[in-house]
Structures are given as structure tokens and as C-alpha cells.
TrEMBL record:
Compartments, record wording: Cell outer membrane
Descriptive protein name: TonB-dependent receptor
Domain (TonB-dependent receptor-like beta-barrel): residue spans on this chain: 421-903
UniProt cross-references to InterPro entries, sorted A to Z: Beta-barrel_TonB (IPR000531), Beta-barrel_TonB_sf (IPR036942), Plug_dom (IPR012910), Plug_dom_sf (IPR037066), TonB-dep_rcpt-like (IPR039426)
Organism: Roseateles aquae
Domain TonB-dependent receptor plug positions: 92-208
Membrane topology: Multi-pass membrane protein
Homology family: Belongs to the TonB-dependent receptor family.
UniProt keyword Transport present: yes
Keyword annotations of the record: Cell outer membrane, Membrane, Receptor, TonB box, Transmembrane, Transmembrane beta strand, Transport
A UniProt-annotated Pfam family: TonB_dep_Rec_b-barrel
Region (Disordered): 1-26
Length: 938
């Protein structure tokens, strides 16, 4: 559950504690460690805000502790403040901050950290990940705060940058993988809503996610959690062991997390176990076509029946517009996973050493090993695909096209053709913190983070043509290959041994890294009417890079129908200088100001940005806070956008406007509109991209009229110009059609460019005449992108004499407008409420908790707003989903919990959708999931 709580910015807390960079005295940490989020300037606020994440008591410190001297600090060191006695209006600051506590991850039904972040109401953007299937990054998860894309959210661990996932999201966008961050040592996750480049530098345009690790543990704790899905698949088990150490000078905490999860296959869900359920034609398993007529040649009598056991006994004679073949409705479901399988081992440790009464050394380390598997298509072959796609059959004298889908029974099971990602990543921070004297503290830290990924992709070998067609007999006068192909070979099932003779695996090696050195100091400058004027200074330097090395055998005649892929790599260095002020002018009015300059060097050029962040807090009474902030931000261009020489893929759907015009068909009924899958593309990078520039605004209030109730309302807006994005393929296709049909000047530079970008088969081609082969695209700096909306959050708690304690929380986010214009002069109309809007227009999360004696129960409800249907003629949703957890504390050392996700087992479907019939990527088809969790203090 996301907490409605927000925090006041403060200066004196270190990155290891909260978002920010200010240090603290190592031995007065409970008193002088103050929140840096978002402006690092007001003391204690984050600790207080945690008390409001759920209606339970939380530990915090009093503001007085940060202001007292050494003697006062010692006397106040054990002060405890319960959340219900602190006015939320006193705890929060100019920016809203959402907090997810460690216990929320399981209690509220979240599978892992990525699942909890995905549920955030602020996370309105659609992202592809482990449950999406066919994407560049199915072994990783990303978030998109405010719908601005994964690369506009900065993700940190203990306030420090970590390495990107080595493979770019959608082939272009760099992002941090949230799927494999272990939860064993997580204390809490803070999410800053709004631009924060003046605090954290590049990437923090939509917001900042800071994952904060625990710093101490009193006991050795074992946690075991296991579960699965009611409908089958997804069985999983996780074991965590964590503990601490406490010596005279050395202290720390450590944790180990081991987990394993089975995949979920499409065939395990009845509603998508057959792709002909809505009348679609079966998939072609044995297909033989006359290339000249593009019609199937009927299979030999009995050949389909002889192979009826394939694809779980579903193979049968089939007929479509193009003729007869042997087909099955299970060609896609047999090989498609809707959730990846995964095994992981993660290790973490935090150590602190008292070098002197004023100086502490520290080390923080994370190490992870992950293996992820998925499947989106089985082995398939089309004759001479690396050439014309057809051949001359000397036995028939015809130009023919043969195709073959190979069934799981022929290869030893569908998992034989799984893709696998083997990841190793580490994050290490070494530093020192302590007192400088005169009330100033410092922290100096070096951190290094490396993420390595080996991708194993099963492929057919180059000998597959010969396997099905026999030895090539040469070429005809037009260069078309000639085979004396025997149809008996085509219509014969393979043995696993035969399949092994035509199958292999390519291996790609990917790596991303970042190294950073930072030095910061904070303290008091003078005394103002409302309190001390605090300041912080920051200096940073670092570098980052990546490399993607494809298997060198691609395109070298080893694998069937592959092209050579050049190694892509790049690096850049950066430096930053920053300063912050917190000025309490009166007891009621506080102002914050931060500014920072970031400089980058990459691709033989330099780039830089100066950003600022301002905030105001006005408290006319102790119960009411009025707040406002304005910030500028920036993002250096993604390195993949800059350095990628070439990447290939295909669009989810495409429309061929030119063929519609040729056929004289209106777009609303044209057979060439919204073709799925869409056209292939080839994408190249650009070293001339400029940095993006953003601005964000916020205006809100927090009202805490009583100990039991509080509410907040925040209006927000974020705007970006010079947005780095790829050319819109739909616009390219529209322009190409208008240029070819004379609606635009065919000789103009824009028309010449549009026609050049769309590569088509010749109009007289034997196979697929005039069809789009490929679209050439590249990144550009778009004109503008903006979004605005509001957040509302509330909390209410009450106690009863006989029935225990109750609490309720709610948070609602509404996107009021989203505008995007690729070029100057484009209208950029509001997309919210239209079928062009592809993100969530609204999200609501509510919780109801009840604690009675040794029992505790939490019901979580999430409502997502409506989505456009696949055919863009109707809507899907809005829908509710509920999670339930119930736990029992046997004694101080033993507890058990039952967690049910998707309590009512609802699966969201889209009546207009083609297979797999549900809104892929937006909703999960898993149905009801459950876990049993046991926790023991050893």
C-alpha cells in the first residue's frame, strides 16, 4: 500500500538514510540524522511521515533533538513519538513523498518490490516487463511515474545511483530494473513526486524512487514464504535469513534471500488456451503454398490425421481464404508464458566502524545472481527465408513456399525453446561520515555498481532448409534456389533428436556500470526568527557506460535467417556542484531553495544544465499546511539513443495507409489498418541529441484536525521540452502515403525523407507484392510533452474497547491532461479520455486494517481507470482488485500469515481483443494467487 504520508525536506541526513546527501554525526544518528527529501532541509520529517503509512505507531525523533547541543542530545536520545500524537501538517514539507514500508510488501499482497512500485497511484504509465511477454526486457521491470516513461524516474538505493539494466527498454530507453531488488533488508521505499534535478541531477524529471536498506537488526530472523496460483503455474518459494552484529566499534546488518518461481503458460488458462476461440483461423503447422497464386496446396490425404497428436492432440485439417493446410488453435498458447520463471540468490550487508568519536567508516554491499526464463514463440521455419522466401520445386515445376511450426512434442517440451537471461549484479559503497566542527557534518562516499547479463536465445540452425527441402540443386535464371523437395519430409513429425540436429543457441553479452564519488557537508549558517538557517553543499563526479555484444555467429551462416549485429557500447563522464538552503522566516513560513549544475561529456562533446528547486511551507495553525513548489529539471540523452548503431524490432501494430489508398478503402474499414503484429523497423542512434529540459509545479494542502484523521490534496504539473524520442512510425506511414498519392509535394525534402524511410517489396514481387518490409527510424528531440493532475490521500484510525484497533487509508491520483507534440506546430491535443491515451487515467488504492490481540488483517483494494479497447471503439474497465492478508502472532518469536492476491479471482478481458484476449501488460491473467508466510526469530 502506498502511504498518503509526505515528508519535509531536510539538510542533515545522509544518502544512506534518506534521499539526499547531507551527513550526520555517527553516534547521534537518532537525533541529528535529518531528512534530505526533497530538499534536505527540515529535520526529522521522514521519520514522522512513516508513522502515517498505516494507522500504526512508528518510531521517530523530536525536532528539538536536532537543535540541541551534545548534552541535550544525550539526554533526549531515547525519545519516542507515536504517530497518532503528531500532527501530519507539522511533519510534511513542500513536496509530497509516498512511503512504502517493508511490512507493506507482504501485508498488502505485493509479490516483490517491482509489484509494489507498479501499484503506486503515481505510476500511471504503461510499461512492459516480466509479465508482458514479447519485449526487449522481459527479465526486468520498470516504472513510469506520471506516465512520462521509465527513463524519467530516477531510482536509487540508499540515495545512490545504481547501474542501469544492460538492455535498453524498447531498444532505446535506459532504466533501472526493479524486478530483482531483494526485500530481505529493505527498511522502506520513498517516492518523491515531482522534478528533483536540483537535488539529484539527471533523470529526476517525473520523480525519484529511493530504496532504503535497514541499518540494524537485533535478532537473527528466518522468513519463509511459498505459494502459487489457483488456476495452475507460478508456484514459488522464497527464504530469507537476516541478522545483525554489534561490537564495541563495529556494527552492521546482513541478509540472504533465495527464491524460485515457475512460469505461467498461456495454455494453463482456459480462456486463452486456443487462439481460435473467437473464430480466428488455426495457426499453420504444415503449410505448402503456390507462391504465384499465394494459395495453399492441399495436404496429402491423411497427412494431418497422421500427426493429430501434435499440439496436445489439436492438429487437424484446416481451411482459410488461402486454402487448406494442417493447423492448430494451440500454436501460440503452447509456447507463450504470461509470467517468467525465475531463480535468484541475493546477498546484502551494511557495516559501520567507529574510527573515532567524531568519524565513522561505513560499507554497503549488494550482490545478486538471477536466472529468468520466458517464451513467446516456438520454433518455426519458412523456406528460404534468408533469401526470397520461396523456391522452385523441381518435382512440381512450381515456385513454392513451405512453412512449418514445430510442436512441443517434437522437441521434448515447450521449455526446450525458452529464452534465458542470466544476470549478475553488484552494488558497493565505501565512505566516511562525521563532524567537521562548528555544527557542520560531512559525508564522503564512493560507490560502484555493475550489472552483467548473458542472454541465451534458442534458434534454428542454417541447415534447416536442407533438412526439410534436401540439397539445393542450384538456382534458376532469376537466381531463385532450386530444390527437389519431397512433401513427405514436410508432413512428417520430428523426433527430439532430429530437432536437436537443426537447433542451437546464440549467446549475447551485455553490461552496464556506474562509478560515483560524492562529497557533501551540511550545517547551520545563522539564526532566523523561525529557527536556524540551514545549508548544504555538494560535489560529485562519476562515469557510466554500457556494452551490448551480440553472438558473433549471427549473420555468419550458422543460424537460420539472422543478420550480423555490431557491438554497441558507450560511456560518459559527469560532474556536479550543488547548494541548498532552508530558511524558516517565521514559525509559520519556511522557504527552501536548491540549485545545482551538472556537466556531461560523451561522444566527443559536452553538455550541461543548471537547475533549481524552490518551495514554500505556510502553517497558519498546527493543523494546517499550505505548500507550493516549483522546480526545473533535465535529462541527459539516453546512452542507447546516442551510441546504438542499429537495432531491430517490430511494432505491436501498424497501418498501411498507402495500400488503403491504392485499394480505395476508407480507413475505418480498410483491411490494412491496425495490422498485428506490425511492421519491422530498423533504428539508428544519434550523437547530436540535446538534453531534455523539464519543469514541474505543485500546490497542495495537508489538514490534520485530529489525532485520528488527516487528509491532503496536491495539484501537480510536469512539462518537458526537447523530449528525446523515436520518430513516430504512424506519422511516417501517413506522410509516405500522402507523398505517394500527391497530397504532399513528392519532391519536397520531407516527402523524399518519408518515402526513403518506408521500404517495400516491389509491386510485381511474387510474394507479398507492395507490402512494407521495414521502416527506418531514429531518435529526435521532440517539441514538447506535458501532463497535469491531482493526488488526494486520507487516513482515519480508531480504537475500540473490545474489538481492537481499526484503520483506513486511501490515495487517489487523477491525470487531468496529457499533451504530446512531436514537432513545432503540431496541435498536441489532450489525449486523456480519448482512445489515443495508452496509460492509466486514474488509480485509487484503499486499505482497511484491523488488529485484535494476536491477529492482524489487511484488505487492500485497487481501482484502475478505464482503458481503450484493442479495436479503439470501446473501453475496458474501470476495475477493482482486492488483496487480503491475515496474520497471527503466536509469541514474540513466531508468526504466520496467509496472503491472497486477487481475492475474487477476476481476470480482466477485452471483448474486442485478438488472442490472448486480455489487455496485455495492463492486467494479469493469473487469477487468484496465494502465499503462506512463516517468520521466526531464532
Amino acid at each position: 500500500m502506498t502511504s498518503p504520508a509526505s515528508t519535509t525536506p531536510g539538510l542533515a541526513g545522509p544518502p544512506g538514510n534518506t534521499l539526499g546527501c547531507g551527513p550526520a554525526h555517527p553516534h547521534k544518528e537518532s537525533l541529528k540524522m535529518q531528512t534530505l527529501f526533497p530538499n534536505r532541509l527540515a529535520p526529522l520529517a521522514l521519520a514522522l511521515s512513516l508513522a502515517y503509512a498505516l494507522p500504526q505507531a512508528a518510531l521517530a525523533q523530536t525536532p528539538a533533538a536536532a537543535e540541541g547541543g551534545t548534552a541535550a542530545a544525550k539526554s533526549l536520545e531515547q525519545v519516542v513519538v507515536t504517530g497518532s500524537r503528531i500532527s501530519r501538517a507539522r511533519a510534511e514539507g513542500p513536496n509530497s513523498v509516498t512511503v512504502i514500508k517493508s511490512e507493506d510488501l507482504d501485508k498488502l499482497g505485493y509479490k516483490n518490490v517491482a509489484d509494489a512500485l507498479n501499484a503506486l497511484t503515481e505510476n500511471t504509465g504503461f510499461t512492459q516487463g516480466e509479465d508482458f511477454g514479447n519485449t526487449f526486457t522481459p527479465a526486468a521491470n520498470a516504472i513510469s511515474l506520471r506516465g512520462l516513461g521509465p527513463n524519467h524516474t530516477l531510482t536509487l538505493i540508499n540515495g545512490r545511483r545504481i547501474a542501469d539494466y544492460p538492455t535498453a527498454y524498447e531498444g532505446s530507453v535506459n532504466f533501472v530494473n526493479t524486478a530483482n531488488i531483494p526485500s530481505a533488508l529493505i527498511d522502506r521505499i520513498e517516492i518523491l513526486n515531482g522534478g528533483a534535478s536540483a537535488i539529484y541531477g539527471s533523470d529526476a524529471i517525473a520523480g525519484v524512487v529511493n530504496i532504503i536498506l535497514k541499518k540494524q537488526a537485533q535478532d537473527l530472523t528466518l522468513n519463509i514464504k511459498g505459494g502459487g496460483t489457483q488456476l495452475g503455474g507460478g508456484e514459488n518459494l522464497r527464504a530469507q535469513l537476516s541478522g545483525g552484529l554489534q561490537g564495541e566499534k563495529l556494527s552492521g546488518v546482513w541478509g540472504v534471500e533465495l527464491s524460485a518461481r515457475q512460469p505461467i503458460w498461456s495454455r494453463q488458462r482456459d480462456f486463452m488456451a486456443d487462439n481460435t476461440l473467437k473464430g480466428a483461423a488455426p495457426g499453420v503447422v504444415f503449410g505448402r503454398k503456390d507462391a504465384a497464386s499465394n494459395k495453399y496446396i492441399a495436404p496429402p490425404a491423411g497427412s494431418c490425421e497422421a500427426n493429430a497428436g501434435l499440439f496436445e492432440g489439436s492438429l487437424a485439417p484446416a481451411t482459410a481464404k488461402a486454402g487448406s493446410f494442417c493447423g492448430s488453435g494451440r500454436t501460440s498458447p503452447s509456447y507463450w508464458t504470461t509470467q517468467t520463471g525465475n531463480t535468484s540468490s541475493n546477498f546484502a550487508a551494511v557495516l559501520n566502524y567507529e574510527l573515532s568519536p567524531a568519524i565513522e567508516l561505513f560499507a554497503e554491499g549488494l550482490l545478486g545472481f538471477n536466472s529468468t526464463e520466458n517464451n513467446t514463440r516456438g520454433p518455426a521455419w519458412t523456406s528460404a527465408a534468408a533469401g526470397p522466401g520461396y523456391f522452385r520445386n523441381s518435382n512440381s515445376g512450381k515456385l513454392e513456399i513451405w512453412s512449418r511450426r514445430i510442436a512441443p512434442e517434437e522437441i521434448g517440451g515447450a521449455a526446450r525453446f525458452n529464452r534465458e537471461w542470466r544476470d549478475v549484479w553488484h552494488n558497493l559503497a565505501l565512505g566516511a561520515r562525521g563532524e567537521l566542527g562548528a555544527g557542520w557534518n560531512f559525508e564522503a562516499v564512493f560507490n560502484t555498481s555493475v550489472y552483467q547479463n548473458d542472454t541465451h536465445t534458442p534458434r534454428l540452425l542454417a541447415n534447416v532448409d536442407e533438412f526439410f527441402l534436401g540439397k539445393q540443386q542450384g538456382v534458376d535464371a532469376k537466381g531463385i534456389p532450386i530444390y527437389a523437395a519431397d512433401a513427405k519430409r514436410l508432413y512428417s513429425a520430428l523426433t527430439p533428436a532430429e530437432f536437436d540436429s537443426i537447433a542451437g543457441t546464440s549467446v549475447g553479452h551485455n553490461k552496464a556500470w556506474t562509478h560515483n564519488l560524492s562529497l557533501n557537508a551540511s550545517g547551520e549558517l545563522s539564526q532566523l526568527a523561525g529557527g536556524p538557517l540551514r545549508a548544504a553543499l555538494l560535489a560529485e563526479a562519476g562515469s557510466q557506460g554500457f556494452s551490448n555484444r551480440a553472438d558473433p555467429r549471427l549473420g555468419q551462416g550458422v543460424f537460420y535467417n539472422t543478420t550480423q549485429q555490431a557491438e554497441v557500447s558507450g560511456s560518459r563522464s559527469r560532474y556536479a556542484l550543488g547548494a541548498e538552503l532552508n530558511a524558516p522566516f517565521t514559525k509559520q513560513l519556511t522557504a527552501t531553495l536548491a540549485t545545482r549544475y551538472d556537466g556531461y561529456r560523451f561522444a566527443g562533446r559536452s553538455d550541461g544544465a543548471l537547475t533549481y528547486n524552490t518551495g514554500l511551507e505556510f502553517r497558519p495553525t498546527n493543523e494546517l499546511l499550505l505548500r507550493a513548489h516549483h522546480a526545473s529539471s533535465f535529462r541527459a540523452p539516453d546512452m542507447s539513443y546516442i551510441f546504438t548503431a542499429e537495432s531491430r524490432g517490430y511494432y505491436a501494430s501498424s497501418s498501411d495507409y498507402y495500400r488503403c489508398a491504392q485499394a480505395g478503402q476508407p480507413l475505418d474499414t480498410c483491411e490494412f489498418v491496425d495490422l498485428s503484429p506490425g511492421f519491422n523497423y530498423v533504428k539508428t542512434g544519434s550523437r547530436d541529441l540535446k538534453s531534455e529540459k523539464g519543469k514541474s509545479w505543485g500546490l497542495g494542502l495537508v489538514w490534520s484536525p485530529s489525532q485520528q484523521f488527516d487528509i491532503s490534496v496536491d495539484l501537480w504539473k510536469i512539462a518537458i521540452k526537447d523530449l528525446v524520442t523515436d520518430l513516430d512510425s504512424d506519422k511516417i506511414l501517413r506522410d509516405e502515403a500522402e507523398c505517394r498519392t500527391g497530397k504532399q509535394d513528392a519532391g519536397s525534402p520531407s516527402c523524399v525523407d518519408a518515402v526513403r524511410r518506408v521500404r517495400r517489396n516491389p509491386a510485381d514481387a511474387v510474394v507479398k507484392p507492395g507490402e512494407v518490409i521495414e521502416i527506418a527510424t531514429n531518435p529526435i528531440n521532440a517539441a514538447r510533452q506535458s501532463t497535469h493532475g491531482f493526488d488526494i490521500s486520507a487516513k482515519y484510525g480508531w480504537k475500540t474497547a473490545d474489538w481492537g484497533s481499526f484503520g483506513a487509508t486511501a490515495k487517489y491520483t487523477r491525470v487531468q491532461a496529457y499533451h504530446y507534440a512531436q514537432f513545432d506546430g503540431d496541435v498536441g491535443a489532450n489525449q486523456v479520455g480519448t482512445h489515443d491515451f495508452s496509460d492509466w487515467p486514474s488509480k485509487l488504492i484503499t486499505t482497511l486494517s484491523w488488529q485484535h490481540g494476536a491477529w492482524n488483517h489487511t484488505l487492500t483494494g485497487q481501482r484502475n481507470g478505464k482503458l481503450s479497447s484493442e479495436d479503439k471503439k470501446d473501453w475496458v474497465g474501470p476495475y477493482w482488485n482486492f488483496n487480503l492478508s491475515t496474520g497471527y502472532q503466536f509469541n514474540k518469536k513466531n508468526s504466520v500469515s496467509l496472503i491472497v492476491n486477487n481475492l475474487f479471482g477476476d481476470i480482466r478481458k477485452d471483448p474486442s481483443a485478438t488472442w490472448p484476449y486480455y489487455p496485455v501488460g495492463y492486467y494479469l491473467p493469473h487469477g487468484r494467487q496465494f502465499w503462506l508466510e512463516y517468520n521466526r526469530v531464532l
